[in-house]
Amino acid sequence: MTHDEKATEQIRSLMPLCATLGVQAVTVSAEKAVLTLEWREDLCTSNGMIHGGTVMALADASGAACAVENLPEDAAGTSTIESKTNFLGAVRGGTLVATSTPLHVGRTTIVVETELRNGDKLVGKTTQTQTVLRPK
């Protein structure tokens, strides 16, 4: 999977946790954001499984990247106000890929759905709501 270095740097700049986790961007657009995370032992819980909080952090970052691309021109930014993840499988190696697509783009909220995959295996689904922040 080819990564977009410019988009990766932008994601890491806007969300410093992404730099700490090693998140990389494949693509970021209004239609779809794809971010990846390589399995590392220091991101795991018991039995070599990536920690659920790490999975959720990747999903949140991917969803936020998608939401930012859908912000109205007069917006100042976005922030997650609700997020729900269903875990469907464990990640014990390889690459975790988060693919986010918008479900609803409104003036005050943006709802994004994120699929989390490890290879061909669907390991999670996240639905999140982002609030549209306005300048004060």
Number of domains: 1
Second CATH tier, the architecture: Roll
CATH superfamily: Hotdog Thioesterase
Q: Spatial order of the strands in the main sheet?
A: 1-2-4-5-6-3
Order of helices and strands: HHEEHEEEE
* Low-pLDDT sequence parts: none
Rg on CA atoms, Å:
14 Å
Indicate the structural class. alpha+beta
Quick check: average pLDDT? 97
Report, as a whole number of angstroms, the end-to-end distance.
Answer: 40 Å
Q: What is the top-level CATH class?
A: Alpha Beta
Number of helices: 3
Oligomeric assembly? single chain
Question: What best-fitting shape do the alpha-carbon axes yield?
Answer: globular
Summarize the main sheet: 6 strands, antiparallel
**How much β-strand is present in the residues?**
35-45%
CATH topology: Thiol Ester Dehydrase, Chain A
What does this 3D model show about the protein?
- With about 140 residues, the chain is of the alpha+beta class.
- It has a single domain, classed as Hotdog Thioesterase (Thiol Ester Dehydrase, Chain A).
- About 25% of the residues lie in helices and about 40% in strands.
- The chain has three helices and six strands; from the N terminus they run H-H-E-E-H-E-E-E-E.
- It has a six-stranded antiparallel β-sheet with strand order 1-2-4-5-6-3.
- The longest helix is centred in the middle third of the chain and has 18 residues.
- The chain is globular and about 45 Å long.
- The chain starts with a helix and ends with a strand.
- The mean pLDDT is about 95.
